Amino acid sequence: MAIIGIRGVPASYSGLETCAEQLGTRLAARGHRVSVYCRQHHKQYSSDWYQGIRLITLPTVHQKYLDTIVHTLLAAGHALLQPYDIVLGFTAGNSPVAWLPALGGKQVVLNVDGLDWRRRKWPSPAKRYIQFAERLATRLPYTLVTDSLVVQSFYHDAYGADPVYIAYGSDVEPLPAGQFLQQFGLEREQYILFVGRIVPENCVHHLVEAFQGLETDMKCVIVGDAPYAKRYQAELRSLAGSNVIFTGYLFGEGYRELSTNAYCFVESSEVGGTHPALLEAMAFGKCVIVNDTAENLETIGDAGLSYDGREGAAALHRVLARLIRESETVAAYGERARRRVQRYYTWDTITDRYERLFYFLLEQEASLSKVQLP
């Protein structure tokens, strides 16, 4: 099988890459041959193999609006000529080109991700294109997958489609306090954490503004970055006091260490499906507070707290003030969150579901090929 529509693995950007890495390495360990198409300008891993996955590097146009679609077009064209039986693509925006391997008899599965046209970063023409691509995805020869029941319902109501629901995974390896806490001047359970892209639709300003005026010696730690939102990031830094720390991107041990030792975690995003950083914070046993979008509430169930995203910082401020006073509440919700992800969101369970879907599609194809036409 092949995976297209992402930047590449090892993961070093977003949840899509993490999903490709976690799924791909597990399928490879089960004896499947897995290829992942990587973008030339993004790939930093020197080998053409990563934990059993073959890495195929192709060029693209390094430009905000063309980067993904051009690379996916090239990857889909290359995959068309390869002996894959399954091609897994990511994001609805790639639907106009990711279906091409179907011309060569491949089963093409498309994980549509969230409702990307809701993101503030896109100008009106881009939003219209993404909505067009969503609709097109339901008309082209795809098996659609979504990691959110809310997004699944949207596709059913808006387009009469029935995507397969397969959640996102959340396996993590905790790390004790060490060099990264020391690097940023942090102490264990003495900071509130956000992890994600620093873009307007992730509403990091809710947290930065909410943190001001809290009666606490804790710090606020913002982990992440984004190459196309420098003005927004500059505005955040101008709002932030000395107790707000921007770390930039952190992956691997740095990310794990800061996540393991946080007091609580805030997911302030107003758009998107299932947010990987939110699930992983829950897996680390953190008390989580989310913007009350339907997708976020679906993820936490009864294992987290929410605030009114329309009210924004003021509503989040009240929740944080309560939790700073009530450490026992933080501990109780953290344990509840850990149990929830262990029950529903392990990568082995997610891999089982994808594998069953792939086998079902191939068996269905084999059955149809045996039908004798008059």
Itemize the secondary structure elements and their pairings.
Layout: E1 2-4, H1 15-29, E2 34-39, E3 49-50, E4 53-58, H2 67-80, E5 86-90, H3 95-98, E6 107-111, H4 124-137, E7 143-146, H5 149-159, E8 164-165, H6 179-183, E9 191-195, H7 204-211, E10 219-223, H8 230-239, E11 244-248, H9 252-260, E12 264-267, H10 276-283, E13 287-291, H11 294-300, E14 305-307, H12 313-325, H13 327-344, H14 347-369
Parallel strand pairs: 1-2, 1-5, 2-4, 5-6, 6-7, 7-8, 9-10, 9-12, 10-11, 12-13, 13-14
Antiparallel strand pairs: 3-4
Helix pairs in contact: 1-14, 7-12, 10-13
Account of the 3D structure:
The chain is an alpha/beta fold. Helices cover 43% and strands 16% of the residues. The chain contains 14 helices and 14 strands. Strand 6, helix 4 and strand 7 form a beta-alpha-beta unit. The radius of gyration is 21 Å and the shape is globular. The mean pLDDT is 92.
Structure described in brief:
With 374 residues, this protein is α/β, with parallel strands linked by helices. The protein has helices at 15-29, 67-80, 95-98, 124-137, 149-159, 179-183, 204-211, 230-239, 252-260, 276-283, 294-300, 313-325, 327-344, 347-369; strands spanning 2-4, 34-39, 49-50, 53-58, 86-90, 107-111, 143-146, 164-165, 191-195, 219-223, 244-248, 264-267, 287-291, 305-307.
